[in-house]
Amino acid sequence: MLKDRLPTLQKLILQLQSVPYLATKNVYRVALHFLEKDEQSLDAFCKVLLEAKKNIRQCALCFNWHEGGQSCSICADGSRNKGIVCVVETWHDLLAMEKSGGYDGVYHVLGGSLCPLEGIGPEDLTIEQLITRVTSGAVQEIIFATNPTPEGEASASFIASKLKGMSIKISKLASGVPIGSTIEYMDRVTLYKALCGRRPF
Ligand SMILES: [Zn+2]
């Protein structure tokens, strides 16, 4: 019906359907949201999108986003310890780590995690670039901050196997009981991981 009577709307719906993370049931709501906007604000929205695409680049070293210059603000920061690299899956994981305020090393953004079922292999991530970074000799320590999911764990194990034999320190984030939560309300996996990762008192 859309194709015959509302071909332009169908085109819009098709474009929205191609946006990952946008739930199918929300596609029509988002289309309506755009159609209800006035032309001026819609124009401003499109301009910002194009401007972002034009100006925002990935850092050649760590794959964090940046604007202008050759590297991101973290890699360019002289006070950061370049010998310690925290490996994260995505840019927003990097932001979360930064918000913790307790890390002064640098990062490596993988661009996702290994997921054979979805066809995501090592070549789809920045694993090769990380290995090159380590073999260049500038890295003394790798901290895995991948998610505690099967995909995140598999990614960390795969990279660790590639780094085997290299004289660097490899560690991963401790997982355990979140501050402020109670044992009663913790999920099974978190509680099990906390138990496995217990430390001397
Ligand atoms: Zn960088």
Q: Order of strands across the biggest sheet? A: 4-3-5-6
Order of helices and strands: HHHHEEEHEHEHEH
N→C terminal distance = 67 Å
Radius of gyration: 21 Å
Helix content: 40-55%
**What structural class do the secondary elements suggest?**
alpha/beta
Average pLDDT, all residues: 91
Counting DSSP E segments of at least 2 residues, the number of strands comes to 6
Largest sheet: 4 strands, parallel
Helical stretch tally: 8
Beta content comes to: 5-15%
Explain this structure to me?
The protein has helices at 2-5, 7-17, 27-36, 39-55, 91-100, 127-135, 150-162, 188-196; strands at 56-58, 65-67, 81-88, 105-109, 141-144, 169-172. It is of the alpha/beta class and 201 residues long. The strands form two sheets. It has a four-stranded parallel beta sheet. Helix 2 crosses helix 3. The chain is globular, with a radius of gyration of 21 Å. The N and C termini lie far apart (67 Å). The protein binds zinc ion (ZN).
In summary, what is this structure?
This protein has 201 residues and is of the alpha/beta class.
